């Protein structure tokens, strides 16, 4: 209770703080709030209260009030039913810069957003489908399928090590930068030529971008399909997704919400770690993500795009043991393999915080973890720190919180923690 009181107090203070670049907050939040009423069911039908659900939405409004996110959308399910499907803010035209001259466009629940690193969960799932199909074994070396990868000490790096961020391949090659992300062939050549010291393999270090390109090549090799085609065949079409693609075609890209760098611009040494992981600053990432090149690219670790509801639909399918609306998207054992812990809590040498991973997902913890208190069974993924995408089988919930601000140093973190705490407080295990 003391911790909760302190968090609530900090959140209230945050209403009045403006750290670095922030957006203009309207006097009435109702004027920038969109609700898909036809989706939302009575909270009582899933063992919740109206007051509890209102408290969760107020927590979202507190995130918006920090001024660090021009747009936020939330899809929250319990017991498979949508409780909240809402959005707040502007998809474009209310960025933190005075040079943002775009016409203001309201954020809607059906507005697609780039999931950034939330993409990794889907790419990992596709690899697990290959294992289910007996086309690969997760513990085989990558070089068994792609011999050219086995150069310079990488011959024994397994697919599982790539999925669980233990391959030693966490850094993008120095010769590459964010403008190279769309050239998958060039990136693959550089990754194959990378030298890895033997002691580096097995160490936990988050792969911000590299892992996706390796996993994509495996999919190409064993299916003779592009990763986009395989995603369409096994996930997007069977689950009736409108978006949910790596990048978006021009007709859909015009629906996409813009991203904005907010908060303080990080300085050394933080800026060094960001550049090492992402190949660019948050400002450069935000600008690049709004370009046609980025929308047309396939970046398996970073540019899956879709709505909050679509990502929530994916996590709900996992909660359903691989079933969506009567269709078996994957076998229950595949869900177990995807969500099972691999290695106990350990300091991640890229993120510099203790983390628990499965072969593709970020896990919760006990007594507290990434997904809140008593969340040891919860699994999901962050998207560039601020996007919160997870499911918790003990609470029978799937949560997809998307936003378009890219702050690293700002006052948004207490509000994000408060949101997770609010979800867990109003959903008993």
UniProtKB/TrEMBL annotation:
InterPro entries: Beta-lactam-related (IPR001466), Beta-lactam/transpept-like (IPR012338), Beta-lactamase/esterase (IPR052907)
Residue ranges annotated for the Beta-lactamase-related domain, each copy included: 62-406
UniProt superkingdom: Bacteria
Pfam families in the cross-refs: Beta-lactamase
Protein name as annotated: Putative beta-lactamase
UniProt source species: Moritella yayanosii
């Amino acid at each position: 209770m003391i911790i909760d009181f302190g968090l609530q107090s900090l959140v209230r203070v945050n209403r009045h703080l403006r750290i670095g670049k922030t957006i203009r907050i309207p006097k009435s939040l109702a004027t920038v709030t969109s609700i898909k009423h036809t989706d939302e069911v009575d909270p009582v039908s899933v063992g919740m209260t109206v007051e509890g659900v209102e408290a969760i939405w107020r927590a979202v409004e507190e995130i918006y009030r920090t001024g660090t996110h021009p747009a936020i959308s939330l899809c929250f399910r319990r017991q498979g039913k949508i409780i909240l499907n809402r959005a707040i803010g502007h998809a474009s035209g209310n960025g933190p810069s005075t040079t943002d001259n775009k016409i203001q466009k309201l954020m809607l629940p059906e507005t697609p957003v780039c999931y950034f690193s939330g993409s990794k969960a889907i790419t990992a799932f596709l690899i697990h489908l290959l294992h289910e199909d007996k086309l690969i074994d997760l513990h085989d070396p990558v070089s068994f399928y792609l011999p050219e990868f086995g150069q310079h000490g990488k011959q024994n790096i397994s697919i599982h090590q790539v999925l669980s961020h233990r391959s030693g391949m966490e850094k993008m090659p120095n010769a590459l930068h964010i403008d190279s992300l769309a050239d998958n062939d060039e990136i693959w050549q550089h990754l194959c030529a990378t030298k890895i010291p033997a002691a580096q393999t097995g160490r936990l270090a988050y792969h911000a971008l590299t892992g996706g390109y390796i996993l994509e090549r495996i999919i190409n090799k064993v299916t003779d399909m592009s990763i986009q085609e395989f995603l369409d065949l096994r996930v997007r079409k069977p689950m009736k997704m409108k978006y949910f693609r790596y990048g978006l075609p021009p007709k859909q890209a015009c629906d996409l919400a813009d991203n904005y760098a907010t908060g303080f611009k990080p300085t050394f040494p933080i800026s060094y770690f960001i550049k090492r992981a992402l190949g660019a600053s948050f400002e450069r990432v935000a600008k690049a993500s709004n370009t046609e090149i980025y929308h047309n690219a396939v970046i398996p670790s970073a540019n899956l795009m879709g709505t909050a509801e679509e990502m929530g639909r994916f996590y709900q399918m996992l909660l359903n043991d691989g079933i969506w609306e009567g269709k078996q998207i994957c076998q229950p054992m595949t869900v177990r393999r995807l969500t099972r812990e691999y290695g106990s809590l350990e300091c991640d040498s890229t993120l510099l915080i203790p983390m628990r991973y499965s072969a593709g997902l970020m896990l919760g913890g006990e007594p507290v973890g990434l997904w809140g208190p008593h969340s040891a069974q919860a699994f999901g993924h962050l998207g560039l720190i601020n996007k919160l995408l997870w499911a918790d089988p003990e609470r029978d919930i799937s949560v997809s919180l998307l936003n378009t601000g890219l702050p690293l140093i700002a006052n948004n973190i207490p509000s994000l923690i408060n949101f997770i705490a609010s979800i867990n407080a109003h959903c008993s295990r």
